[in-house]
Structure formats: structure tokens, C-alpha cells
Amino acid sequence: MPAQDPLFADPPAAAAPGAPLAERLRPATLDEVVGQRHLLAAGRPLRVAFEAGRLPSMILWGPPGVGKTTLARLLAAATGAHFIVLSAVLAGVKDIREAVEQAEALRRAGRATVLFVDEVHRFNKAQQDAFLPHVEAGLFSFIGATTENPSFEVNAALLSRATVHVLQPLDDGDLAALLARAQAALPGPPVEPAAQERLIAFADGDGRRLINAWESVVASHRRAESITPERLESALGRLLRRGDKGGDVFYDTISALHKSVRGSNPDAALYWLARLLDAGMDPRYAARRIVRMASEEVGLADPRALRLALDAAEVYERLGSPEGELALAEAVTFLAMAPKSNAVYKAWGEVQALVRQEGTRPVPLHLRNAPTRLMKDIGHGAGYRYAHDEADAYAAGEHYLPEGLQDRRFYHPVPRGLELRIGERLDELRRLDLQARQQARDEGAKKNR
Fold first, then answer.
1. How far is CA 53 from the centre of its chain?
2. 295: DSSP letter
């Protein structure tokens, strides 16, 4: 493949003068990278790999605009390896085959190769499998970049041959530093503090988005005395409202949606959902909040709510906007009308608080695993009653919590929806427990006479 082909090329020494500002500001050294200190600080994984000139295969997982491509380029440069780029959006098996052929030619010439696959999650199973024998043989160091959870989107076989590094969104301090670089490279009017706060909120952890926004602002208001929030609004328009994720209005509207669902008002819930989507909130974020509401507000009063919320999120992923938004509206309406229970939410919080504040209580002997003879001899599993062998598949009177917590109750079902029946069942099981324990005490008393 010709070296000038954009899919198979070493990174240029510097971006062309007419390139977008984000490309011109791409770091040339690791020390210029903004953010990702958990990976790049002294002694951290990527810093160690960089300094050692050793590049194992890896997956870089993180949101857009946080430096995945930049880190891959810098790591390749540190090892002196040829850098081959494949975009999973554009490439196919033919491109993979050509990349492999080029890597083989480079190896014969004594040069290492780094194969970088952007948006690797977009490759199907067959395409991802095509890398496996070459990664296994060490033909190239494989670096995949993804915005999606690799546990679900990357084949297990490929995942097992690569280290996953999680990249974080840039924080406000990182974005402020990046904005200062953008302003030095592309001077513009002074930015009022309130306007800078909104610009950083608009970026939402995405460095590329911040730099592109600054280019737009300068192009629109190069001769202004200063950049005010109003001028920012006029330069970015609807986009600015879409990015106001850190603002009070955004969180107030989310709060209104959540409380309308909790208050069983479908009309208000639909209204606030429409407001959020119209303001440009990512519908995927709305889907995540809807799933949270199903767990927190409905819970086991109607377990269908969680499944419906997850289905709505999947429908949106398949259809996108605007068709997929109807599924989100359907889920919100169902949640608003479903019976409500926060019993599991409260129980989980109580259990977490207890576990955090006290010491580690030992597992009762009868509940311990006993895979070896020695463990059986010292009492592991002794006296355990297999519930399926008991009447009604319930070992009445058995204890499952550690010593000192046997009678502790965390989960208290509400008298609504399915939890009404769950509560009745729990009451019956506890009655059987009391009866069995009283019977055991009576039998023990007889033996002691």
C-alpha cells in the first residue's frame, strides 16, 4: 500500500497551517497531553510503556475528545514504530488484509508496526477476529479506540490479548488549560469569566469540542471588545444550549422529569422529557436516567419497568432520532403510571452503609465453601441445609447472615404492586422461621432435662 495513503501512513511531523485548530494543537510529546493523569503520571501504565519503549496491545476506552488517537500516535512514535490507522467506520476486511501485508513487509525490513483501529467497536465479529492471529504472533502492536464498553463491543478473544485503559473526560481544570492553549494559538477577544464557564460546560469533557467552539467564537466575534455570554450564544446558537450540561437549568429539568415520574404524572413527565430533548440533551443520557428511575422509583413493585426501560434504550440505539425517541416517551409514561417502591433502593443504601462502617464479619461455617477434604474436616459447610430438599423448597429456621446480624432486616416491601405479594410471602417465610426455631428450642430443652 502506498505510504501516502491516509489509511496507512506515519503521522506527519506537524499539522498543515490550514488544518483545523484541534489538529494543529495535537500534542507532540506526552508531557503536552492534557488530562489522563491516572495513566500518564510517573509510574502509571502508559508512562511506563512510553519510557520503556515497549508497546503491548491495548484498548483505549473513553468518550470523544479525550486523547485516544493522540496517545496512540505518541506511543507509536516512542517505540519508533510505523503507525497504521484504520477507521472501523470506513475500513473492511480488505483494508485489514492490506494493513497486515504492510506490517509483514515492515517486519522483514526490521521495523515494528502499530496498528491503530479507531472506533473498533464498529467492526463486526468476523472483522475483529481477523486481527487475532497477527496479534498473537506479535506482527504488530494493536491499539483499539472505542467510546463503547469493550466488555460488550469487543470480542472476548481479542480483549484477552489486550490491556484495557479507561480514559476519563477532561475536567474543568484540564479544559481551562486547553482553552488557554487555543487562545494562544488563535488569539481572540478577552473572554468574560461567565462566558468561559459556559464554554467549558459546553465542552462537557471533550477537548476537541472545546477547541472547535473557540474557533467558531473567534470567527464570529474577532473584532468584539470581549466575549460575553450573549456573544457566545450568538456564535454557537443552539449548540450552546445543547451543551449546557453543567448549568442549573439542565439539572433542574432533569430533576423535574424524575419527580414527575415519582409523582405518577405522565403528562408532566412527557413534557420535561420533550424539553430536555428539544434542548439537545443526548437521548442516550435520557435513556440512562430512565433506567435509573425504573430501579429507584418503581423497583420490585413492577419489575417490568426495568425491562421496558432497557428495551427503550436499545430501541433508541437501533433507530436513533427522531424515531427512537418515541420508545423513551413510552418508557417514561409507563414509569409514571407504574406502582412505586423505593424499598430496594433504601435497603441497598442501608446495607452499603453498614458494610462500610463496620468490620468484616466472618462467613458462618455452614455457608462456607468446602471443595477440599481439609476444609470439610474443619467444619466448612457443616450443617448446611439444601433448600431444594426441604418442604416448599425452604429451609425454615436457617440463618444466612453473619453472627450478630441474623435477625437484621434491610428490605421492607411496600404494600403496592408486586411488592404487596412479596411482602406477604416474606411474612409467611418469617412465620415458618419462628415456628422452626421455637421447635428447635423446645427439642433442645427436652434433651437437657
1. 30
2. I
CATH number of the domain bearing residue 179: 1.10.8.60
What confidence score (pLDDT) does residue 49 get?
83
Statement to judge: residues 288 and 253 lie in one domain: yes
| Beta carbons of 216 and 235 less than 8 angstroms apart | yes
Contact of 370 with 383, CB cutoff 8 Å: no
Residue 30 and residue 47 in contact, taking contact as beta carbons nearer than 8 Å = yes
Asked if residue 116 is part of any domain, the answer here is: yes
Which residues does 257 contact at the CB level (< 8 Å), separation at least 6? Answer: 269, 272, 273, 276, 289, 332
pLDDT of the residue at 237: 66
Residues 99 and 185 in one domain: no
Please report whether residue 349 resides in a domain. Answer: no
How far is Cα 78 from Cα 252, in angstroms, rounded to an integer? 47
Q: Please give the C-alpha separations between residue 5 and each of 85, 86, 115, 186, 284, in angstroms, as whole numbers.
A: 10, 11, 15, 30, 35
Burial bucket for residue 337 (CB in 10 Å: 0-12, 13-18, 19+) = middle
3 in a structural domain: no
Q: Please tell me the predicted confidence (pLDDT) of residue 373.
A: 87
Residue that finishes a domain, picked among 166, 198, 217 = 166
Q: What is the mean pLDDT of each run of 10 residues along the chain (449 residues)?
A: 39 60 87 89 86 85 89 86 88 85 90 90 84 87 88 85 89 92 91 88 85 88 85 71 53 89 93 86 91 95 95 94 94 95 93 87 89 87 90 88 88 91 90 87 78
- pLDDT at residue 22, rounded to an integer: 86
Closest Cα partner for 60 from 81, 42, 35? 35
Q: What is the number of structural domains in the chain? A: 4
pLDDT for the residue numbered 60? 92
Whether the CB-CB separation of 108 and 24 falls below 8 Å is answered with no
Domain range for 416 is: 362-447
Q: 191 CB contacts (<8 Å, ≥6 apart)?
A: 183, 199, 226, 227
34 within domain boundaries: yes
Q: Any idea what the CATH number is for the domain that residue 324 is in? A: 1.20.272.10
